[in-house]
Each structure stands twice: as structure tokens, then as C-alpha cells.
Amino acid sequence: MTSQEPGETHTIRRDGVFDVPAAEDVARSLASARPGTQVRVDLTHVREFHDFGVAVLARALAGCPARVSVRGLRQHHRRLLRYLGVAGPPDDAANVPA
């Protein structure tokens, strides 16, 4: 992710398989986000989710300083995020701890 100013929006798109390496890549991008920025994680083109990848995503969302929204998660993975302490609907600010 490039350097951002507060109020800017950045989109992270993934497709294919969302496994641990893919989730770690997204986590690195989220970790570099600045407070006050909006980050959209677009997973609508992911064809296969691995639960461990979603667990890595949950940790990244919980620690991200930016406002993050996530699109494209299936019901099972939204529940998994809630179980892991990430509250809010997936298309809303998903990095608010429960």
C-alpha cells in the first residue's frame, strides 16, 4: 500500500485462493495504513477461503489503525471473524474489537 493522507481511500483486492500467504500480504498492507484513512479489502473474487487465512485477517483487522471495510466474505467466515473478536458487519468498519 502506498503512503496515504487522512481521508483517502485505498482498496486491496484479492482473487483466487485466500490462504495464509495471501492473508499475510493483506495484513502487511493493513499494518502500513495510516490512522484516518479508509481501506477497503475486496475479496469478492476469491474462489476459496482457508480458515487460517481468515484468522490472519482477523488479527490484522483488529490491529489496523485505519478504518477498514471488507467485502466478499461468506457467512461462515463472517462468523469466524466475530468468534475471533472482530465485530461489525463485513461491509462496515470491521476492525472494532468486540
TrEMBL record:
| Record InterPro entries | MlaB-like_STAS, STAS_dom_sf
- Which stretches make up the MlaB-like STAS domain? 15-86
This protein is called MlaB-like STAS domain-containing protein
